[in-house]
Amino acid sequence: MAHSKVTKDFNNTANWFLTKPRITGFLFFLFLxxxxxxxxxQRYELYIEDQNKEVTGILNELEENIEQSLKNNYTVSLTLxxxxxxxxxxxxxxxxxxxxxxxxxxxxxxQLVPNGVIKYIxxxxxxxxxxNLDLFKSVPRTVSEAKKAIETKKMYYQGPVKLHQGGVGxxxxxxxxxNDQFWGFSAIVIKxxxxxxxxxxxxxxxxxxxxxxxxxxxxxxxxxxxxxxKEAYDFDQSKSIIFPDGDWKLYVTYLNKxxxxxxxxxxxxxxxxxAILSSYLLxxxxxxxxxxxxxxxxxxxxxxxxxSKFKGIFDNAAVGIARVNTKTGALLEVNxxxxxxxxxxxxxxxxxxxxxxxxPDDVVEDSRLFKLFLxxxxxxxxxxxxxxxxxxxxxxxxxxxxxxxxxxxEPTNHIVILEDSTERKAAALVLIESExxxxxxxxxxxxxxxxxxxxxxxxxxxxxxxxxxLGYTVKEWMSSNSFWFDHLHPDDKTRLVEYxxxxxxxxxxxxxSYRMIAKDGSIVWIRDIVTVIEEQGQPLKxxxxxxxxxxxxxxxxxxxxxFNLVTEQNKRLLNFSYIVSHNLRSHASNMQGIISLIENxxxxxxxxxxxxxLKTVAENLNETLLNLNNVVNIQSSLNIxxxxxNLNDYIERTLANLNAHILNKQVSIINKVPENVLVNYNRAYxxxxxxxxxxxxxxxxxxxxxxxxxxxxTAENGQQVLAVxxxxxGIDLKKYGDKIFGMHQTFNGNPDARGxxxxxxxxxxxxxxxxxxxxxxxxxxxxxxxxxK
Length: 789
Hints:
The structure is a single chain. This protein is of the alpha+beta class. It folds into 6 domains: about 120 residues, 2-Layer Sandwich (Beta-Lactamase), CATH 3.30.450.20; about 55 residues, no CATH class; about 110 residues, PAS domain (Beta-Lactamase), CATH 3.30.450.20; about 100 residues, PAS domain (Beta-Lactamase, 2-Layer Sandwich); about 80 residues; about 150 residues, 2-Layer Sandwich (Heat Shock Protein 90). Helices cover about 50% and strands about 25% of the residues. The protein is built from 22 helices and 26 strands. A 5-stranded antiparallel sheet has the order 2-1-5-4-3, with helices on both faces. A 5-stranded antiparallel sheet has the order 11-10-14-13-12, sandwiched between helices. α2 runs antiparallel to α6 and α17 runs parallel beside α22. The longest helix has about 60 residues. The chain is elongated. The N and C termini lie far apart (about 120 Å). Keywords: Kinase, Membrane, Phosphoprotein, Transferase, Transmembrane, Transmembrane helix. It comes from Pedobacter insulae.
């Protein structure tokens, strides 16, 4: 009963409004006017908010640009500071500065300022006015801001300031400290207009905004502005940001504040007009209910026509369209394109499950994506998959799946739109196979195929062969723009850079050999054949092949060593022939003279004396022939037996043989050779070498000092090195250094010396591919080093 009464009251109220159209229209006008006022207020708030967002966006963009520029400048200053060694001397300043200027064209100059005096400038041309300027004897403002950089130990920018080399600019100074002591500054110079241009501070860029750049004068404490402005702007009401690196302040102000009222007035007029028109139309609508009914009828007819047009578009679309039951996967509606694509009739497709048409290999991925779609994680799925037609033919299709339910509602139906991509997919597969064949062909070439941009040699491509030759993966090679240069042998970098600079300008094909450091630390010789690739007549890329020529280089080194060895052997043989000729002629001459004296002797005693003298000469001749025979045997032996010998065992055996001499001279022997050291050597040669070196150390000891002989064995560059050191009388190497290993060379007046020992020792060592070296000082001792091959 109560519900019936409420319904009746509502109907009466509605009828009252419908019977009084003008009052209803006026009330509706007041309602719309209130609504328009609310919209105007909201638009005003949005306009102010958008204006603030735009100003904030501009400031953020400029702040990011300036901060990035300051970071780059800091990197330049730091790089320049790293050229200073521990003694405070810059190394390669011009070379490093040139590269920094090339990489940072916005810089006018870079400087090193030891003790506040500008001593190094690059480029010097155009900046001569600043050379030798003492910052601490300059104007007070310069002194103050230079000291500020030192106090903060951070990079600080002076300026904008008039530069001594002309113009207005900014000077960034990074204080440099060596061992916590102030050394000076690493500085950069930027023209002010260049700084504004690179940062995007341009009053001509934005129509409705103006910029101003200021700084507090450290002397006058007044704010100075540096952007010329034809008009006066109230920057007190602007937004601004502060850059502490230079104590700068950047303002942005909006000019056309009256625009909001222009827009609001148009909105007010539009709303007022809309309210009047709406009220008038409502009045007319109420008056003419019949017209309204007729309008509804026409709208119904239009809806029917729209549905008819949609049906025509659906059936004749140039893509496949289907409406699918989301929960069951059954096809509810399909168009002609989809039927033709799948080779089924419409009746055959209806009520088929969409999943039954998908290729089995794509079902798992399709289920994963559809699960995300069904859970609401995505509202639309775009993918490419394979379908199986009625004839069994596999076809590719680009598929878009779109939900037909609103967010938060239960899934009902969804639309599937499909475009045939079979031909395009086949063409893509052919292209992929072609690329794979090319890649395979490149990787079978016995060399590293590579390509890079000509500027800075940034890598574009490198073949898999790089791992076989240098040990690096393709990913490691491509990880750095300077990977190739970083792994060049240090001794080849300068030569190669000069070669490239000279020949790349001529657009010539390059052919260079150099060394690279492989991943395992070994040195690999590379022959690099490079071609300059031009596009539209301009050199753009470099393409080349790096061939491993390490074996060839090693063969060249071996050949040179063999040549040097043969040359040395020839010299020895020639020297040996001179020695043999001289020694035998000397003995023969002595014997002839004695025989002549025997023939002329007048008494038997004289003849016996001459016979004894002849016997002595004959014994000396025999000894000379024996020693010469030993040398010949060493130099002519082709099959010297070499085996692994325990070095320490042979040292102990030699010391035992010399025990009487050791005890007689009270020699202290310090044997530091490890017990497990093995050397590949001939037994007799090793015994002879040890005997000669140790006996010489005993023989040439000093009378005023207890003799000490020390034996050690260390590894040098993969070779075992035996050192025999004594504290004996020593040898004057400046006087006898080139004769010490010669035949018949004695240096200390020892009557027992014959000058054969060291000559034979050197020949025995070199016959087995080793070498011997000597260091000595008079009255301090001598050290012989034997390098075993």
